[in-house]
Amino acid sequence: MASTSDIRNGLCIRYNHDIYKIIEFLHVKPGKGPAFVRTKLKSVTTGKVVENTFSAGHKIDDVRVETHKYQFLYQEGEFYHFMHTDDYTQIRLVEAALDMPKLLKEGEVVSILINTEDDAPLSVDMPPHVELEVTHTEPGVKGNTATNATKPATVETGAEINVPLFINEGDKVKIETEKGTYKERVK
């Protein structure tokens, strides 16, 4: 058992008969009244995000997890296949367990949270940035850059993102995996 003082990003807890991962929290101490912790929880089974407020000192049931490095092998329907980088065992996960499955390229190494009680994979943590090649985009119009103008582009994994007008087909771009947004062009 843990308390609200142990809450941090990435902590997995048992809440409402499911396992949730804390993705955001804020400790609030109002001028009058007791302190509390406002949290955003993401279900590791369904991917649903809920908000909850815990009063200060509230006991929470934390889940012991281990993080292992896995390499993404291939996608088959709604299943994604991964291989452990140390012992080469393979697992498959449903698409709901991944945050941004469209940005996952074959050979990419990700961190997978494993529940130590039953060795079940809980969630996949993507690297903060991925580098992907632009396979299709319309040519940018010269002189149309008065503001931060963007255009849609399709990358090698099939995901569609908005990029600046100067990006062309064949360019490599760095994409922020948390939001799925363009970060910079890679040379």
Structure characteristics:
187 residues, 3 domains, five-stranded antiparallel β-sheet, translation elongation factor activity, six-stranded antiparallel β-sheet, OB fold (Dihydrolipoamide Acetyltransferase, E2P), SH3 type barrels, cytoplasm, mainly beta, Elong-fact-P_C
Describe the structure concisely for a colleague.
The chain is an all-beta fold and 187 residues long.
Describe, in plain words, how this protein is organized in 3D.
- The strands form three sheets. Strands 1-6-2-3-4-5 form a six-stranded antiparallel sheet, with no helix packed on it. A five-stranded antiparallel sheet has the order 9-8-7-10-11, with no helix packed on it.
- It is flat, with a radius of gyration of 20 Å.
- The protein has strands at residues 2-3, 12-15, 18-28, 36-43, 49-55, 59-62, 65-76, 79-84, 90-94, 109-115, 121-125, 129-137, 150-155, 160-164, 172-176, 181-186.
- It has three domains: 2-62, SH3 type barrels (Roll); 65-125, OB fold (Dihydrolipoamide Acetyltransferase, E2P), CATH 2.40.50; 129-186, OB fold (Dihydrolipoamide Acetyltransferase, E2P) (Beta Barrel).
- The chain has no helices and 16 strands.
- With 187 residues, the chain is an all-beta fold.
